[in-house]
Amino acid sequence: MDVEVLGHVTLKVGDERRTPSAPKARQVLALLLVNANRMVSTDVLIEELWAEQPPRSALSALQTYVFQLRQLLRKIRPGECPKQLLVTTPNGYEFRVPPENVDLQRYERHRLAGQQAFQAGENMAAVEQFRAALHIFAAPPLANVRRGMHLDAEIVRLEESRIGVQETRIEAELELGRHHEVLSELSGLASQCPQHEGFHRQLMLALYRCGRRPQALKVFNQLRQSLVTELGLEPSRELQMLQQAILSADPRLDTAERTPFLRTTADPAPLQVPWPAASPWKV
Questions:
Q1: CA–CA separation, 192 vs 162, rounded Å?
Q2: What is the predicted pLDDT for the residue at 257?
Q3: What is the tens place of the pLDDT at every residue in 12-38?
Q4: CA 225: distance to chain centroid?
Q5: Which residues pair with 95 in a beta bridge?
Q6: CB 139 within 8 A of CB 6
Q7: Can you give the pTM of this predicted structure?
Q8: Which residues of the chain fall short of a pLDDT of 50?
Q9: Cβ atoms of 224 and 254 closer than 8 Å
Q10: Which residues pair with 4 in a beta bridge?
Q11: How far apart are CA 177 and CA 192, in angstroms?
């Protein structure tokens, strides 16, 4: 049996996919699957279903939803005892399934392998692992589930994780000299995330390396306008230093090596970049 939460919450056996029809039973299943092979307490499940106003019958209702899930498991896996798959623990419930059968855990395995390869400077291997992770995580998670506070928090965590994988994968691609190949993707990501400095930094660098310096500076101006207008913030020091380097056509921008051309905050004498109080740079 395969478990899917990155997309629709589904239990899959062969070509057959099953999910509970009752919204709250599906909600319980989703929280158990996101935490597959870990106990989820009854308190957390009740809080997910009814927030801070559970009915007096909350515990018995939860037990009914668990019974419905076990009935579904009995139909899917007739040769197994459903109580060995959806296990009652002293404080809650645990859905036990081999990690390789859970799409979220396969995603995590590729994500961690990609991160380790990237940190070791093995960019080709990192790109392959990150691409495999993103292939698994190709749809909005828990798409067919009504969500309470705990599932909402899980979605935020998962989406942040996916964005992080995209950003680090593109960083590895840039270090491989693939600025032309990632340019279109970066343009879309910067448009979808108008205040994400990481994607804008990568887009500026890719544009510059493609010989499009005016467009790279325009990206910075648009980001700064969005940050100042909506949040009252200036771009980060790293972004300001990149903008200055593009203005001066710093030759260190042309290399795809990982060695940063900017000082880090840990350096003893960080470069101070004054910022005019008036309008942003014009290009």
A1: 14
A2: 66
A3: 988 888 999 999 999 999 999 999 999
A4: 26
A5: 86
A6: yes
A7: 0.85
A8: 259, 261-283
A9: no
A10: 10
A11: 24
Beta-strand runs (E) in 77-212: 86-88, 92-95
Helices (H), ranges, 176-273: 179-192, 197-209, 213-231, 237-247
CB-based contacts of 269, cutoff 8 Å, min separation 6 = 263
Longest distance between any two alpha carbons in the chain, whole Å? 73
Residue 2: helix, strand or coil by DSSP?
Answer: strand
What number of other Cβ atoms are within 10 A of residue 257's Cβ? 10
Both tokens of 32, joined, read 């158990």
Contact by Cβ (8 Å): 233, 275: no
Residue holding tokens 């989703």?
A: 30
Show the tokens assigned to 67: 């019974």
How confident is the model at residue 250, as a pLDDT? 92
Nearest to 253 by CA among 173, 148, 179, 172: 179
**Run of H or E residues at 61:** helix 58-76
CA atoms of 157 and 173, how far apart (whole Å)? 24
CA distances from 160 to 2, 64, 214 (A): 24, 34, 31
List of domains in the chain:
1-176 (1.10.10.10), 183-283 (1.25.40.10)
pLDDT of residue 258: 60
| Beta carbons within 8 Å of 129's beta carbon, 6+ residues apart | 110, 111, 113, 114, 117
pLDDT of 65 reads 97
Query: Rounded to 10 degrees, what is the CA torsion of 47, 51, 56, 61?
Result: -60
